[in-house]
Specification:
With 281 residues, the protein is of the alpha/beta class. The protein has a single domain (3-241), classed as Spore Coat Polysaccharide Biosynthesis Protein SpsA, Chain A (Alpha-Beta Complex), CATH 3.90.550.10. 40% of the residues lie in helices and 19% in strands. The protein has helices at 3-15, 33-43, 66-75, 96-106, 125-135, 163-173, 191-197, 213-223, 250-266, 268-277, and strands at residues 23-29, 53-59, 81-86, 111-115, 119-121, 139-146, 186-190, 227-238. An eight-stranded mixed sheet has the order 3-2-1-4-7-6-8-5, with helices on both faces. The radius of gyration is 20 Å and the shape is globular.
Amino acid sequence: MTTNEDEFLSARLAIEPPAMPALTLVVPLFNRPKTLARILRALDSQTLQASRYEAIFIDDSGPESYPNQKSVLDSSPPRCAWTYLTTGLPREVNGVSVARNLAIRAAKSPVIVFMDDDCVPNPHLLEEHLNAHSADPRLTAVGNRSEDEKILTLHPPIPILRDKCAREAAKSAKGELGAGSFVTANASAKTKHLLAAGLFDESFAKPGEYGYEDRDLGERLLKAGAVLRFLPDAAVWIAPKESDPWAGARDAAKAAARDRYHRKHDGVVKNVVKKLFGKKK
C-alpha cells in the first residue's frame, strides 16, 4: 500500500469509525460442547444482524476442560464478532459471577444479554432484547424460558410454556416483578447500570455453592431505579444438561448460596431467625 493510500484509509476511518456492536451476548461455559455447538448454529439464525452484536464466551469448566469448548468455537465459529475468555478457577468453584464480570468489562456495547450454556436461543432473542432496551432507558429484562424444544421454532407472539415464566409475566404486567426473577439464563441489562451497581458479587464464587449471584445483582439494580420487565418474545430452550457440577448435591449447594445471599441482605440476626422459624421477624 502506498503512502497516499495509507493516508486516505486513515482519513476515511477518522470520518467513518468501525461500527460498535449494539449488544453483547455473554455465555459462561461449563463443559457442554454439544449444546455450545447448538448455540453457535442458533446465533447464525438470529434476526438481529451479525454485525450488530458480539458474543463473549467465558469458560469456567476448569483448565482441564478448556480444550473441549475452544475446539467447538474454533471449528464452527459464529458469524458475529466473538471472544473466548477463561476464569482460571478450579472446576469445583462455581465461578459464574467471575465469568460474567470478565465479560462485562470486555464488552463493547451498551446492552448485555446473559444466557447460560445449557440454553439455546430462539432466532428472535437478541432483537427482542435490543428493541426493549431501545424503548426504555431504565429497563432490566428477563426473558421467556422453556424445557420444550418447540420454543425454538416459534415466531412472535411466543407463548409462555413454563409455569414459572407465566408467574413472572403476570407480575411484570402489574409492575411487581422482583429481584428473584432476574434469572441470568435469559436476562439483559444496560452495561452502564451493571457497572454502576458494582457487577456480580464474586464472593458467591465458592466451592459447594450454586446460584443467587444473579438475584443479588437484581436487588442492587432495582434499588438503583431499574425497572424489571418480562419479555415473552425473547425466548430460549433449556436443553438437557450434558454435565452438572452440582449433580447429587444441588440442593445443598443452593442452600449454601441462599444462606450467603440472606446474610448479605437480611443481616446475621434476621437470617438466623429466618432459618429457625421460616419467616421474617
